[in-house]
Amino acid sequence: MDKLTTEFETYMKEWILNDLSSPVAALNNFSKCPYAKTAFLENKVLFVDGSTNLPAVVEKVIAHWNDQPTEVVVIHLGDSISSDDIETTVDALNQQYMPEDFIFLDDHVENEERMHDVVFNNGKYNVLFLQQKSKLDLAAKKLEKLGYYKNWTKEYYDEVVSWRS
Question: Does the pTM of the predicted model rise above 0.85?
Answer without folding.
Answer: yes
